[in-house]
Hints:
Chain A has 208 residues and is an all-alpha fold. Chain A has helices at 24-41, 48-55, 59-65, 69-95, 103-115, 119-134, 139-159, 166-185, 192-206.
Amino acid sequence: MPRPANPIAPQPQPAAKSSAPRGAARRDCIVDAALVVIGRVGPDALTHRLVAAEAGVPLAATTYWFASKEALILEAFAHAARRDIAQLERETAEAADWTSADAAGHLARSMRASLTEHRTRTVVDYGLWVEAARRPALRPVADAWSRACQAFFATILEAIGGRRSEHDARLLTAAFDGLLMDQLASDHPDDEARLTAVLERLLGAFAG
Amino acid sequence: MPRPANPIAPQPQPAAKSSAPRGAARRDCIVDAALVVIGRVGPDALTHRLVAAEAGVPLAATTYWFASKEALILEAFAHAARRDIAQLERETAEAADWTSADAAGHLARSMRASLTEHRTRTVVDYGLWVEAARRPALRPVADAWSRACQAFFATILEAIGGRRSEHDARLLTAAFDGLLMDQLASDHPDDEARLTAVLERLLGAFAG
DNA sequence: GTCGCTTCGGTACATCTGTACCGAAACTGT
DNA sequence: ACAGTTTCGGTACAGATGTACCGAAGCGAC
């Protein structure tokens, strides 16, 4: 079938893998490739062949390590969540030392990074959210990520002298996520200065 | 080109009714069906056959009215955004009369409805956001929706005596959206009382 | 070495896909 | 009435898809 001109059409990958990993390492490699594909074309447009090409492994390897496409997608999302939760926990440890003066700046830089260097990862994360709305199997994964985010913002709240409130941590999380999603989907994202100003106002509204 | 390059809306139907919609009405019918399909399986898993079955029209009708699957998806998202922006504008008019005492309750009921009766519509809306992150063609649509949301919350802010701040309206919008997305993807969504409490705190942080 | 396992990779196949095609039907203005 | 255009709907088709299959290759225990 002559495929339409798809603006997000997958790029053919040169598959430059000189030393193809073997055994369980290959499984991880396939999961990573699946995440790249999901970031590029979305979970529903993912195909075994796309993933195999991205990972530089033969087609059969994807069906050997995963019972079905469904299982591969689930595992990929779970892997992404695990990885990003671990990263968030590291940032949470750092955030304990933030002050009211620099917290907004730190958050703005973090958001900026999510929009540029880590854009693919960010798109996958929010794709997970929407997908979890459709597939109950993904909801525990989404919930775990949500809890990690709230712990992160609870730490920030404490650092800047906000009240120790579960509601407040949830609202900060929601506002940050909403802002990030908006920036991600916008044609005219803000620069870092403006982002910092908005985040300063947000923290100001919940501090002291 | 065997097909019309530019199908303009034909004249309205005469009084005689038929079971299957014809003409431009059929086009709308296909768009609506596409939205249902997108809500159920996501935009990438949408197929012409799924849409045709949902709309109750022959397969060829979908390719007659839309140049490609891509065009159908774009039109469906644009239609959803237009419809939901119109609804939001109606609610904005109502919100001008809200008071500090009942604003949170109104918002909680609205969120509850988005999670239950209008769940499919909500999933489509947030799917649009994620999809816009991937496809630039959808970003103007996402931006328009974002602006409508901010106007809604700016009105609420004014009604409850908050400061007239662009930042605040954005932050309220982001927090509401983030909260709604979280609820949508969660296995344990809050009941209306808890939702009201959280939203009361949110409005309280930005009022006065 | 031989055995029993996991892993690998090429290929086959039924099914589904987007969309092109074409004759018929319905509608249009005259 | 007529001719011209738009709409309709059944079908055709090449290519993509998920996954089954099967023989070969690795590898640790003996």
